[in-house]
């Protein structure tokens, strides 16, 4: 078979092919089958591009270059038409996505031992909330990228449906399941009938009862945690001496958001923040912000916040070390504070999951199982919010990061095998 299943994710990506009757994910970084969705353009070795954990390590090691992460999030935003500076040249952000997808394809072809010409691509139920034209544009852009890297045939499957097909392989009886795929950039829901007998059907259309999605995910939780716990140490909420005006919020939001970190790094921003630091009521804090932008530390802050978010899934208090900004500097984050910071987003998840159940023509009690997948499904407040949509359902989970890729690979066999 010359087809593959591709899960291009906001935070992590995977790609697989069928081996015999079983889906197998390609090793994409050493023996790892999961690749952080990160690209590093190394200015020290002109033209050299690194991917995944290698890209992150190069950035942390302070190589001169540009790190780009959360690439998928541009597809559902105005950034889809933007360019970014790479040294002395400008490059379209969609071209960066193309470089990353081509790298995944090459890894899968090395694993399969042959050229791959067809792909079943995962996609969120909604790239963009309440904008059908922008949503369709995002899929067209992703189709064009797939074609340019060498996929002649491209099909799309909603990511929660792919996760459902993977979960179904373990099912021993028929049941109605709410799939909750909580990713880095979006959260997607499917209500589906699954079971050993239904699994054999060629056409599953009647089994898929409803789909819904919302542009809320792990990168939003990172940004909100950063604004709550870290950015106040860099002057968020402080004032300027002149007229007691508040520090502008924009630089903090830009630096706290994965997709816009690199846009903070401009000479104009550096000059403006240096001036703010001189005229701030709390100059030490604002100097930290100025230094973070001047020294290109935005992604290091974001990684510290992400680590803190993960830690808060297991503990009530987490330290976020920021000693790369200033010796002994650290932020303290609490589960309670994090839950409060993301409350509006988790409430949207509850509403979207509830709407998906209603769209299926069902009552909450009709849902027998909630299957969680996606890295952000580990956040306790997220699970609690979604569980409220079907309070009597049992909770199941598989591979948080690989369920979608495995399901897409299985679907590739059905469509192109």
Structure notes:
The termini are close together. Helix 2 crosses helix 3 and helix 7 runs antiparallel to helix 8. Strand 5 and strand 6 form a beta hairpin. The chain is globular, with a radius of gyration of 22 Å. The chain has three domains: 3-159 and 405-416, Nucleotidyltransferase, domain 5 (2-Layer Sandwich); 173-218 and 343-397, ATPase, nucleotide binding domain (Nucleotidyltransferase, domain 5); 220-341, no CATH class. By secondary structure, it is an alpha+beta fold. The model has no long low-confidence stretch (mean pLDDT 94). The strands form five sheets. Strands 1, 2, 3, 4, 10 and 11 form a six-stranded mixed β-sheet that branches. It has helices at 52-60, 93-112, 132-148, 159-168, 218-230, 250-256, 267-278, 283-294, 298-311, 335-341, 343-359, 380-387, 403-416, and strands spanning 3-8, 12-19, 22-25, 35-36, 38-42, 48-51, 65-69, 83-86, 89-92, 118-123, 153-158, 175-182, 187-194, 208-214, 317-321, 330-334, 369-373, 394-397.
